[in-house]
Amino acid sequence: MRAKWFAVPLVAAALATGCGASTGTTTSTTGQAGTGGENGEKAPTIALFLPESKTTRYESFDRPLFEAKVKSLCPDCRLLYSNADQDAAKQQQQVEAALTQGADVLVLDAVDAAAVAPLVNQAKQKKVPVIAYDRLISGIGYDYFVSFDNVRVGEMQGQALLDALTKNGTAAKGQIVMINGATTDPSSADYKKGAHNVLDGKVKIGREFDTPDWSPDKAQQEMEQAVTALGRDQIVGVLSANDGMAGGAIAAMKRAGYDPTPPITGQDAELAAVQRILTGEQYMTIYLDIRSEAEKSAELAVAVGRGDKPAAATTVNNGTADIPAFLLDPIAVTADKVKDTIVKDGFYKAADICKGETAAACAKAGIS
């Protein structure tokens, strides 16, 4: 059983809250911590930790949406925010600093989800609840996990690519390249597993990479290596685990003389990727309802900070314990679905998407 929430239009004011990239720990106080909340109970101090800023979503969506929801539910709550800039040691310092500052709840999107068990243990020793955000922390039990059905994400990407290759008549005529995410992110393994569930035995995988830090630059280098090794005419499709890396791979293919580029997948519905999908450079993306993920995590943080224990929709085993979990459903988006998903939900305004070379493609897709 999976919990389902549905996207609602983004509020511009919410997106404007704290959108700048953070290089350290930022304390955002929305009230006087400890002065009392609803019914006079103590207003908790809630600490949010995000892993990096290379991926657009974290600073532009996850952080401001989480903070806005906490403020709406608990005006007196104190918020601590940190971005680790893909540095596990830095994140350790940030978590320890937040515990020292009296954090009552940790919402943690780990840089290295396989290595943060000692930090979770520090929190447990202080009786501070931990909510794993987006990435499943392994090696220890904790309170909640909020994310998407990540294996399903990979299956959707794999199926979309297979559908495109079948339509083009190229599924059996060449090879594909798989550009997976960072090995330090357990979600990456789930995406890879899902994609292989669909693709294995149906296409030939010529090269496969695990990309450190989910870096678009490294993805570009990987794609260049694949083109050199396999030959330009042999590559008929690319499975990219997210949009940023897809952008890097597309840059490599353009430099290699591909016109048009073969079908390539993505994830996160980044603005540049949506524009590429409409103009035909990228085949699809996975649209994640980040608003629901951020807001559900904020609701849980406020609730457990006040001593409540909300019932979870399901559990996910992290290799050590069954973690109470809320899993959201991803949505596969191709050019013909942008209008009725991303635009309809207000994830981006049509005016933001339909600029420059994208304007004609928007008109063709009925987006105005």
Provide a brief overview of the structure.
40% of the residues lie in helices and 18% in strands. The protein is an alpha/beta fold and 368 residues long. Helix 6 links the parallel strand 7 (175-180) and strand 8 (204-210).
By CATH reckoning, the class of the largest domain would read Alpha Beta
Number of helices: 13
Q: Estimate the helix proportion, in percent.
A: 25-40%
CATH superfamily of the largest domain: Response regulator
Strand content: 15-25%
Query: Rg, please?
Result: 21 Å
Order of helices and strands: HEEHEHEHEEHEHEHEHHEHEEEHHH
Structural class: alpha/beta
How many runs of DSSP E, i.e. beta strands?
A: 13
Total domain count: 2
CATH architecture classification of the largest domain: 3-Layer(aba) Sandwich
Mean pLDDT: 90
Shape estimate: globular
Describe the structure.
The structure is a single chain. Strand 7 (175-180), helix 6 and strand 8 form a beta-alpha-beta unit. This protein has 368 residues and is of the alpha/beta class. The two termini are 38 Å apart. It folds into two domains: 12-148 and 289-328, 3-Layer(aba) Sandwich (Rossmann fold); 150-267, Rossmann fold (3-Layer(aba) Sandwich), CATH 3.40.50.2300. An eight-stranded mixed β-sheet has the order 1-3-2-4-5-6-12-11, with helices on both faces. Strands 8-7-9 form a three-stranded parallel β-sheet, sandwiched between helices. It has a two-stranded antiparallel ribbon with strand order 10-13. 40% of the residues lie in helices and 18% in strands.
